[in-house]
Design goal:
This is MmgE/PrpD family protein. The chain is of the alpha+beta class. It has 19 helices and nine strands.
Length: 508
């Protein structure tokens, strides 16, 4: 691993491109040895994981809307759309839009948490779409996905976005552009230009994850993927980009992040070093914000110790700064206690999640969020007895650079009427690589079966899983096998309830 300092450079001094972060990210994409077998296996796991959560969301309104928008942009030799027959093709950027929205809708795919946070598998839909449209092989796709993870993880480790209220797709866009460049085998110069364009257009605010959280949360990563595809296309045609995009006097670091005196240290693999960052990431067992995963498991563990939840007087969750301020009471968002809040808001409320998990002893991606479930009087009473507090020791562990010491959980103190105190803590979720039941291939397969049961036909599900297992051997033009079709009745109402611009017919 090579570590470099990234600093703002005044316009009066021309910064050689070899010293720019975007160039070094492009080198990660254009160089590198063969993908190692265990890394390729993890790519297969994440392709399965993405399909599972996408299929489970196919009938949800944002996913239907995105799919209908995509279907207005047909292309004979394009890319496939989850849920539809593989013969139905659309332009790659619109397939990325539809599939990326489906993957993100339930907030149930993989995660990486460090200085910032990320869902690295958000890169898979645009890469798959480009690989399908451009007739690439399974090995090409694997290389692209591995590269996207490498770039994404490196940025998330080094540069904090959320402290400046910048949304995390600012790291996703360049990772997607780098991954596309790698799978297409583009030169460093072309990838460099594409990365800079992607960074430039993917800077957005964190209001999308504040207060009343809207359906845009599902669209945001797909939007980045669409922009990344377009950025690569422009760069391939010889178009250039705002430069230097990170170090420029009026660019990202100086104007949106830590300012003109900022300095970041970023570690990236050398040309001959293996790309293994995907192995540092982890998926979700439960459909909720990742910082809530361990809290859900902890609620399950504590439930047998509390025979009567009405006797609970108060619940205090000591956790990290990030968990407290993003999904806890430290956010200051009253919506996190509102029974009529959106699903997107509830899955960012540690208080709601802990209350329901404690009551039900299970977590379901649909049932746990219904308005009827959220508005139960006993749930509301318990929910409003819960608070989070920041504990500096949990914050330190959250940011520990050693994966063996990182922790994303917390300590729970439940005070009962009469004075009894019930306490427990959990470092990481049970499905985490260091957890009680770490996910391996069987965990991903089990999650896939659970989420697709009753939606995908068994034969089609088996065909898809066989294609995933053979990913490394799929030849150019065979990546349509990574699409999964479901019966039309499982897609929900055929499109959104209202028409949009793309559904307008041409006047006579």
């Amino acid at each position: 691993m090579e570590y470099d300092q990234v600093r703002v450079c005044r316009s009066s001094r021309e910064l050689p491109r070899e010293e720019q972060l975007a160039w070094r990210l492009a080198r990660v994409a254009s160089a590198g040895p063969e993908v190692e077998p265990d890394v390729a296996e993890m790519v297969v796991n994440r392709v399965i994981d993405n399909a599972a959560v996408a299929v489970a969301a196919l009938d949800r309104h944002p996913v239907r809307s995105a799919r209908q928008q995509a279907l207005a942009h047909r292309r004979e030799a394009g890319a496939t759309v989850f849920g539809l027959p593989s013969a139905v093709r659309v332009h790659a950027e619109w397939a990325a839009w539809a599939n990326g929205t489906a993957v993100r809708e339930l907030d149930m795919h993989d995660t990486f948490l460090a200085a910032d946070y990320a869902h690295p598998a958000d890169s898979i839909p645009p890469l798959l779409a480009v690989a399908q449209q451009c007739g690439r092989s399974g090995s090409d796709l694997i290389r692209g996905i591995v590269t996207a993870y490498e770039v994404h993880v490196a940025l998330v480790k080094a540069i904090c976005l959320h402290a400046h209220k910048v949304d995390h797709i600012a790291h996703l866009g360049p990772a997607q552009a780098a991954g596309i460049g790698a799978l297409l085998g583009l030169e460093t110069e072309t990838i460099y230009q594409a990365i800079q364009q992607a960074v430039h257009v993917c800077i957005t605010s964190r209001q999308s994850r504040k207060g009343v959280i809207s359906s845009w949360k599902a669209y945001a990563p797909a939007h980045a993927g669409k922009l990344a595809i377009e950025a690569v296309d422009r760069a391939m045609r010889g178009e250039t980009s705002p430069s230097p995009i990170y170090e420029g006097e009026d660019s990202v670091i100086a104007r949106f992040l830590d300012g003109p005196d900022a300095e970041y240290c970023i570690g990236l693999p050398g040309d001959d070093e293996p790309r293994r960052a995907i192995l540092e990431t982890y998926t979700k067992e439960h459909s909720a914000e990742y910082q809530a995963q361990a809290l859900i498991d902890l609620a399950f563990d504590l439930r047998p110790r509390i025979p009567d939840l009405e006797q609970v007087e108060s619940i205090r969750i000591a956790t990290s700064h990030h968990t407290h301020h993003v999904i806890g009471t430290g956010s200051g968002d009253p919506q996190k206690f509102d029974p009529s809040a959106t699903r997107e808001t509830l899955d960012h409320s540690a208080m709601y999640i802990f209350a329901v998990a404690l009551e039900d002893g299970e977590w379901h991606h649909i049932r746990s969020y219904t308005p009827e479930r959220a508005s139960r009087p006993e749930t509301v009473r318990l929910w409003r007895k819960i608070e989070t507090v920041e504990d500096p020791s949990w914050t330190t562990r959250y940011h520990d650079p050693d994966p063996a010491r990182k922790a994303f959980g917390g300590r729970v103190e439940i005070r009962m009427r009469g004075g009894n105190l019930i306490e427990a803590e959990l470092d990481v979720a049970h499905a985490h690589p260091r957890g009680r039941r770490p996910f391996a291939r069987e965990g991903y397969l089990s999650k896939f079966r659970r989420l697709t049961e009753g939606i995908a036909e068994p034969a089609e599900a088996s065909r898809f899983l066989d294609a995933c297992s053979a990913l490394r051997d799929l030849k150019a033009g065979e990546l349509d096998r990574l699409s999964i079709e479901v019966p039309e009745a499982r897609l929900g109402h055929d499109g959104p309830t209202r028409e949009g611009i793309f559904s307008c017919s041409t006047p006579d």
